[in-house]
Design a protein that fits this description.
The structure holds 3 protein chains of 3 kinds.
Chain A lengths: L1 H28 L4 H6 L5 H11 L5 H13 L13 H36 L4 H15 L2 H15 L15 H35 L2 H8 L4 H39 L4 H10 L3 H29 L1 H4 L3
Chain B lengths: L11 H8 L3 H22 L32 H37 L1 H16 L2 H12 L3 H27 L3 H8 L4 H37 L11 H9 L7 H28 L1 H4 L3
Chain C lengths: L7 E10 L2 E11 L4 E5 L6 H9 L6 E9 L2 E2 L5 H7 L4 E4 L13 H13 L3 H14 L18 H13 L5 E5 L7 H18 L2 E6 L2 H7 L2 E6 L2 E7 H7 L3 H10 L9 H7 L22 E10 L13 E11 L4 E6 L5 H8 L7 E6 L2 E2 L5 H9 L1 E4 L13 H6 L11 H14 L16 H13 L5 E5 L7 H18 L2 E6 L2 H7 L2 E6 L2 E7 H6 L4 H9 L3 H12 L1
Helix pairs in contact in C: 3-4, 3-5, 4-5, 5-6, 6-19, 7-20, 8-20, 9-16, 14-15, 15-16
The chains are: A mainly alpha, B mainly alpha, C alpha/beta.
Chain lengths: ~325, ~290, ~575
């Protein structure tokens, strides 16, 4: 167990360090001088130079990287150039929108997809399976932002059941906030659910062809019991993998969906920051998202070990 | 024991016959061919000129003249969908080419050499996978400027680890086979073995992954264009058309419906094609349905 | 026809799978406490007969006829009725122990599950009973607690768990479908003993399915011989096999005991250097003094790093091959026998320079091949070729025969022209009994035996002096096996090619080798002329192998004594 755990953790840390190097390097080569940006076009060359020294922009590359990484680790993210507030506050405020959105979408996707996959696998070739997989095939092909537009048209413009966009904030009660996250979450979740349902089905069908399923049947267990007690757990590994990937995708998917629904989330923040060249915000949010993805992948790796005793080994 | 017919062992004529008996493959093939034909046709003929603005005809609902209606500049949506197909196909195709061209050699190399080289390739893969693809594509296109070429590069980069992973996994499954040992006993080196034995045997796998990535590329291009970072006006693109439709949902929903349908149908067709190819060529997946 | 009073009564059973006939009018009856052997070559429908009794057939299967088990009409039974029978009154043991157990559940859980399902006892009581049966099948609590997972067990141990599952509720009928085919001979003997005892203790009926006539003869009271889905002959084991009334029975029995005709022991021949009247024999002595052995292995070892237990700690390294030395003379045919995992395949790979020894040296025709670069190895590789076990896996499915067989020509200094290449391939094909018309076929168009001939043709094309054959006939049916062994013997006679035969099957060693080396735990523990090692083994490992090896002569003699 420990060897596997330690290796996964070491890989996660190494990936995080490499990722931070990449982000740092990319921002290094981006055109535009942050000091110049902060001071505006009217500032003199001396003023800019002074601020550069003050900000540590003239230090050697390695020193600057270490300094930057150290600040990140201590959550000292600096101040946004365009919003003139600490980036940490900005991020905290926006995470309160994006994280619930991604989690609701992920939960929705799993809750829809896994039962559908189970049903389809156990009724393989029947009309229900064909119908469900046909729907899934179409679901996979739908771009989530277009689906979002269609949902807005149907539920907001036509039926007027929910707001077409915007976010009232958590301060005005949970229900209005949840209500405004509902359509975005559905728009994010359904295409993902379609993928997950297909994966669940094919993983189960693969497992159902295994020899040990026949052994279980030869014990006299009815098909349903075999499906639940033997097949499902073995089929969880590919399903978990996809769930992990989907979380990463959902985090990024919020960028577009938040733009569609005018939600003040991380995605909108990073998108605006990129277009406004507010690099301090960009680097912080990107690192945050990357760290989240790596953390989720690590959790997925660790959960493999819970599902599959072969990864645990003996002590 | 069922009697599995390993299709790779079939004669080509039989294979074609079986392909056209496969529902997914036929539907996918017809859709894919139609979309490509539509894109090619648009070079010579479209119902209306997409560069000409006819303000008098703006936001007209679908009619016999304008099958898909017109946009806020009075341009014919059908014509724009046709021209937009070029852009989608070109971006996705080249991005798949980049992914395959770099990813497959990397994956094969990692599988053939193993050891630290394999470890490096895999860790680089992890690194790329750690960046949410869309976020990075947005960053790349925003930093280097919006446009079709940068969109291609951004999407292409994220295809590299996908193909590296698939070809590595495929090659790793081939290497322990006895025919590889036989080839080694015949004095063939790793490069020769990879070219002669490994690549032909993972070609199907790559073909299937290629169609999937092609479909994903079309979705990604649409997303980038939608946020304004894909190909630039006046060249119509499906994603951009959706962006322009967004604020006019209440008055001209057709502006959003038809380009979206174009994306869905194209991606659906490619996915069906991929499923079909996998079904026909991989006996294991075939027994599934 | 007698009234159905037996345990299992199969009459006129016909089976189609997706329209393809698999069984035709099969009759088979088993009494309580009786062992019925069902014998046949691959594709004879043995397994399908078993799955019909269990009603675990694929969806596309349609069965006709009657299958009566203990008064119950199986073909008419509902799924619920079958669930009540399976695991309770009928138990089944499968061929592949490595995949027959669920990898994510403990062995205790998997044994107790069936007990709980059928008897509705509490979890604790079911585990108690699981404990008892696991003890009974030879997995004592101290070493194999219920909490063990399948991956922590060896193949033989896993097969014991599968047997425990099948026998947990003392079924009236046990079906064992090739239960020992995936195991080595020593494990096979142990598992067969266990099955025999369990059947006797509980007066179970046993349907033992096997391709191995010797195994079935040892075990079965009566046998049924199946071919292409039809029963050829059935009756008391001793009578059927001693009288051999049916021509197919005779064919099977003879193939099982087949020993190829060899001109004389090759070693004697090459020791004197040449032989009169053998112009078609290429003399390896022409350019090489006979004093130099063809292959000389000098104290080679191969260590594998131990299992990693934590980030910084590993178990002690494993000696897969431990200080092995031997020589093979030109034209000599040597067998390397041993149990699975004894290191024989690792040794073979090092000889073929496909794996590097950790220490020691291998010399081929007097020159060292250890540590040589691929380019320097070319001459050695030319003279040393390989034949693998799996006739399906040893060919690239996407290449045609011409290209496949020509592959080793890559080793020639001067590359032949396409026409020459073709001639050489045709020549090699003829050598192994195939023809020019096979050049443009894909490997799948050949049967298993033909594919092994192709494999030999590929090995012969560079005219090697030594062929290393790793279990070359163990995946083949007996009748095909006899033909391929004949081919090996014939090539040794005609071309003077030396063999290193790696096998766990002593009958193969006996059939075509001059000398036997017995390998155990990475070491060679005994070497000597084949008849003397096999008839009077000295080392413990060799004795165990010889005692465990199924032998049709011996088994039949014993059966005749028992059954009169």
């Amino acid at each position: 167990m420990t060897a596997y755990l330690l290796k996964r953790i070491a890989i996660a840390i190494a990936t995080l360090v490499l990722a931070s190097l990449v982000v740092f390097a990319v921002l290094e080569i981006v055109p535009g001088d942050p000091a110049r940006l902060m001071l505006g076009m009217n500032a003199s060359a001396e003023q800019v130079e002074q601020l550069r020294t003050q900000m540590g922009l003239n230090d050697p590359l390695l020193l600057r990287y270490l300094h930057w990484a150290g600040d990140l680790l201590t959550l000292d993210l600096g101040r946004s150039l365009t919003y003139s507030v600490p980036v940490l506050d900005l991020v905290r405020e926006r995470v309160a929108v994006s994280l619930p959105l991604a989690l609701i979408a992920l939960a929705l996707s799993a809750v829809i997809a896994i039962p559908v996959g189970l049903y389809s696998a156990s009724r393989r070739g029947h009309a229900g399976d064909t119908l469900a997989m046909g729907a899934a095939q179409i679901g996979v092909a739908i771009p989530n932002f277009w689906f979002a537009l269609m949902l807005i048209y149907l539920f907001a413009v036509w039926l007027r059941l929910v707001p077409a966009g915007g976010f009232p904030g958590w301060g005005n009660g949970i229900w209005p906030a949840l209500k405004s996250l509902l359509l975005p979450a559905v728009a994010l979740a359904l295409p993902q659910a379609a993928i997950l349902a297909r994966v669940t089905r094919s993983a189960l069908i693969d497992v159902l062809n295994e020899d040990y399923i026949r052994t279980a049947r030869a014990k006299g267990l009815p098909y349903r019991a075999v499906l639940w007690q033997h097949a499902l757990r073995n089929a969880m590994i590919p399903v978990l993998t996809i769930l992990g990937l989907q979380f990463a995708f959902l985090l990024a998917g919020t960028i577009i969906i938040e733009n569609v629904f005018y939600l003040p989330g991380l995605g909108r923040l990073v998108f605006q920051a990129i277009t406004q060249r507010d690099l301090i915000v960009v680097e912080s949010v990107v690192m945050l998202l990357v760290a989240a993805v790596i953390a989720v992948n690590l959790i997925v790796d660790l959960s493999y070990a819970i599902v599959d005793p072969r990864l645990r080994g003996r002590e | 024991m069922t009697l599995p017919v390993d299709v790779s062992r079939e004669k080509p004529e039989r294979l074609v016959a079986r392909a056209f008996a496969n529902r997914s493959f036929v539907i996918g093939f017809v859709i894919a061919v139609s979309v490509v034909a539509m894109a090619l046709l648009s070079f010579f003929w479209t119902p209306f000129d997409v560069t000409k603005l006819v303000i008098a005809d703006k936001t007209q609902a679908p009619s016999l003249t304008h099958w898909f209606g017109t946009d806020h500049f009075g341009r014919d949506i059908l014509s724009m969908v046709m021209v937009g197909a070029r852009n989608s196909i070109a971006v996705a195709l080249v991005a798949v080419g980049i992914g395959m061209g770099i990813g497959v050699p990397l994956g094969c190399l990692a599988a053939a050499r193993g050891g630290w080289l394999d470890e490096i390739v895999m860790r680089l893969n992890d690194l790329v996978f750690a960046f949410p693809a869309l976020l990075s594509a947005i960053m790349i296109t925003a930093i280097f400027g919006p446009g079709a070429v940068n969109a291609i590069i951004a999407i292409g980069i994220f295809n590299i680890p996908v193909f590296a992973r698939v070809s590595r996994a495929g090659a790793l499954a081939i290497w322990p086979r006895e025919y590889i040992l036989a080839a080694r006993a015949a004095g063939k080196n790793r490069t020769l073995i990879t070219l002669e034995h490994v690549l032909p045997n993972i070609a199907t796998l790559l073909l299937v992954q290629g169609t999937i990535q092609f479909a994903l590329g079309i979705l990604a291009e649409a997303s980038l264009s939608y946020v304004g970072l894909g190909s630039q006006p006046p060249m119509p693109s499906w994603g951009r058309m959706l962006f322009e439709a967004q604020t006019r949902m209440a008055i001209a929903p057709w502006m959003a419906i038809f380009p979206g349908m174009a994306i869905v149908v194209t991606v659906l067709g490619l996915n069906l094609l991929g499923d079909g190819i996998a079904d026909i060529l991989d006996p294991k997946s075939r027994r599934r349905s | 026809m007698s009234p159905p009073k037996g345990l299992l009564q199969i009459e006129n059973l016909s089976l189609e799978i997706g329209g393809v006939p698999v069984l035709k009018d099969v009759d088979l009856a088993i009494e309580r406490g009786e062992v019925m052997g069902l014998v046949g070559e691959s594709g004879s429908g043995k397994s399908m007969t078993a799955l019909t009794i269990m009603q675990l057939l694929p969806h596309a299967a349609r069965a006709r006829g009657s299958v009566i088990f203990d008064g119950i009409d199986i073909l008419a039974a509902t799924e619920d009725q079958m669930c009540a029978l399976r695991g309770d009154d009928i138990g089944m043991v499968f061929q592949e122990p490595m995949t027959a157990l669920n990898p994510v559940k403990t062995i205790g859980g998997q044994v107790a599950e069936g007990i709980r399902w059928h008897t509705r006892v509490s979890r604790a009581e079911a585990e108690d009973r699981a404990r008892q049966i696991l003890d009974r099948v030879g997995l004592p609590e101290a070493k194999f607690p219920l909490s063990r997972y399948p991956h922590e067990l060896s193949g033989g141990q896993r097969q014991r768990v599968v047997i425990a599952i099948a026998c947990a509720l003392k079924p009236k009928l046990l079906i064992a479908d090739e239960p020992t085919t995936a195991l080595d001979v020593v494990l096979q003997a142990q598992i067969l003993d266990l099955l025999r005892d369990l059947v006797a203790e509980n007066r179970m009926g046993l349907l033992l399915i096997s391709h191995d006539l010797a195994v079935v003869t040892e075990m079965a009271d009566r046998i049924t011989i199946l071919r292409h889905g039809e029963v050829m002959e059935a009756g008391e084991t001793a009578r059927v096999l001693s009288e051999q009334e049916h021509p197919y029975t005779r064919q099977l029995a003879q193939a099982s005991m087949h020993v190829p005709r060899r001109k004389e022991t090759a070693i004697g021949r090459w020791a004197i250097g040449s032989r009169e009247g053998s112009d078609n024999v290429r003399l390896p002595t022409a350019d090489l003094p006979t004093a130099i052995p063809l292959l000389s292995v000098q104290s080679i070892s191969r260590l594998y790093p131990g299992r990693r237990t934590s980030l910084f700690r590993r178990d002690a390294p494993v000696h897969a091959v431990d200080d092995v030395s031997f020589t093979i003379a030109p034209g000599q045919s040597v067998a390397l026998v041993g149990r699975s995992g004894c290191g024989k395949s690792t040794l073979a790979r090092m000889i073929l320079a496909l794996d590097k020894p950790s220490s020691g040296e291998i010399r081929f025709r007097g020159e060292t091949i250890t540590g040589r670069s691929e380019a320097d190895l070319k001459p050695a590789r030319r003279d040393m070729q390989v034949v693998f076990q799996d006739p399906y896996g040893s060919f690239d499915p996407r290449q045609k025969v011409e290209k496949l067989v020509a592959e080793p020509l890559h080793l020639l200094e001067a590359q032949p022209s396409p026409a020459e290449r073709r001639d050489m391939v045709v020549h090699a094909l003829r050598e192994v009994g195939l023809s020019e018309t096979d050049l443009n076929k894909y490997p799948h168009e050949f049967s298993g035996g033909q594919r092994q001939r192709l494999s030999i043709a590929r090995a012969l094309i560079t005219r090697p002096r030594l062929i290393v054959a790793d279990e070359p006939v163990s995946a083949l049916d007996v009748s095909i096996r006899a033909q391929v062994l004949d081919l090996f013997a014939d090539l040794n006679d005609r071309l003077g090619v030396a063999y290193l035969f790696i096998t766990h099957d002593l009958t193969v060693a006996r059939a075509i080798t001059d000398e036997v080396m017995v390998m155990h735990d990475g070491r060679i523990v005994e070497r000597g002329p084949t008849p003397s090692v096999l008839d009077s083994p000295r080392s413990e490992a060799a004795q165990a192998l010889v005692a465990a090896a199924p032998d049709l002569h011996r088994a039949l003699a014993k059966k005749i004594r028992e059954q009169g």
